[in-house]
Write a structure and sequence with these properties.
Elements lengths: L8 E7 L2 E8 L2 E4 H5 L4 H7 L1 H12 L9 E3 L4 E3 L9 E5 L3 H11 L10 E5 L4 E2 L5 E3 L7 E2 L2 E7 L8 H4 L3 E8 L2 E2 H7 L12 E8 L11 E6 L2 E7 L7 H9 L9 E3 L21 E6 L3 E9 L2
Parallel strand pairs: 6-17, 8-14, 9-19
Antiparallel strand pairs: 1-2, 1-5, 1-14, 2-3, 3-4, 6-7, 10-13, 11-12, 11-17, 12-14, 15-16, 15-18, 18-19
The structure holds magnesium ion.
Length: 303
């Protein structure tokens, strides 16, 4: 078996009442708690780059046939990679020009793209696994919408990080759907509440380390609802790229290992479609980022 130079694909999965740290090897999840002593992705990230290298070397030297603690990926229940990041997930608004523009047209604004990144955050109580159902409570929202986004997991913390060194601070990348209740965004005139619903934000299924991802990132981002393509873009279209975001944020906010940044969404969200479209119970969203993976989430009614 040869995996030298390959990116590592870390994930968190349910095992009985526990959540465990695994790594994906040839379609199998290999449990890392016994092998390297880390049962939690955040713990591993905090341990630092030397430890990540040692873990990667150990995993790459594995013979899959000799590993007892492995389960097929399809049979596992995948959890969100980091249940409680050190701070709220940090998100960017209007970071793709065409998404900015579709909103500006709908609002009847004169074209004036943001000159600095727009930030908001989501609490950990909104985070769910890659294939979890998303509950829609009709008492809370009737305008639930999608936003496919690249997620960045900080590996090495810092402040005043220079743009040219920023990508060295990344542990890995993941897929995020910044599910948003548009009626709450309008009613409260702020994004936090409408984008922070309990158990609404799928993250995962894996965190991919950057070794073999293109640099700068050129990754296709797409979202389908019930198999129909709604969003298609590429991370190269970000107005503020990953390095710029890390440098800008860290100028005034100390970034910590395990912090998650969601980098904004391309055009094609439901609220700006003609006519507008919102998610309803039974709908299935598939959110994909090239070379990373796919989230698959069904909308269900909850009270
Ligand atoms: Mg968003």
């Amino acid at each position: 078996m040869q995996r030298k130079g390959e990116t590592m694909r870390y994930l968190t999965y349910h095992s009985g009442q526990e959540k465990r740290l695994g790594v994906l090897v040839e379609g199998y999840i290999v449990d890392l708690a016994q092998m390297v002593g880390f049962g939690d992705l955040l713990e591993l990230i905090v341990a630092g780059p030397e430890t990540w290298k040692a873990v990667a070397a150990k995993v790459k030297g594995l013979e899959l046939a000799e590993i007892a603690a492995k389960i097929p990926f399809e049979e596992a229940l995948i959890a969100t990679p980091i249940a409680r990041p050190p701070k709220n997930m940090i998100c960017l608004g209007r970071n793709y020009y065409k998404h900015y523009l579709e909103g500006a047209i709908a609002r009847g604004e004169v074209e004036h793209p943001p000159e600095a990144p727009i930030y908001f955050t989501k609490p950990h109580t909104s985070l769910i696994g890659a294939y979890d159902a998303i509950g829609a409570d009709p008492e809370v929202t009737t305008r639930l919408d999608w936003e496919a986004e690249l997620g960045v997991i900080i590996g090495v913390g810092g402040r005043k990080i220079k743009p040219e060194q920023a990508l060295e601070h990344v542990f890995g990348y993941t897929v995020i759907n910044d599910v948003s209740a548009r009626d709450l965004q309008s009613r409260h005139q702020q994004w936090f509440k409408g984008k922070s619903l309990d158990a609404s934000c799928p993250v995962g299924p894996v965190v991919v380390t950057p070794e073999e991802l293109p640099d700068p990132l050129h990754l296709d981002v797409s979202l389908k609802v019930n198999g129909e393509l709604k969003q298609r873009g590429n991370t190269r279209q970000m107005m503020f790229d990953v390095a710029t975001i890390i440098a800008d944020l860290s100028l005034s906010i100390t970034l910590e290992p395990g912090d998650i940044i969601s980098t904004g969404t391309p055009e094609g969200v439901g609220q700006f479609r003609q006519p507008p479209e919102f998610l309803k119970p039974g709908d299935v969203m598939e959110t994909e980022i090239e070379l990373i993976g796919v989230l698959r989430n069904r909308i269900v009614t909850v009270e």
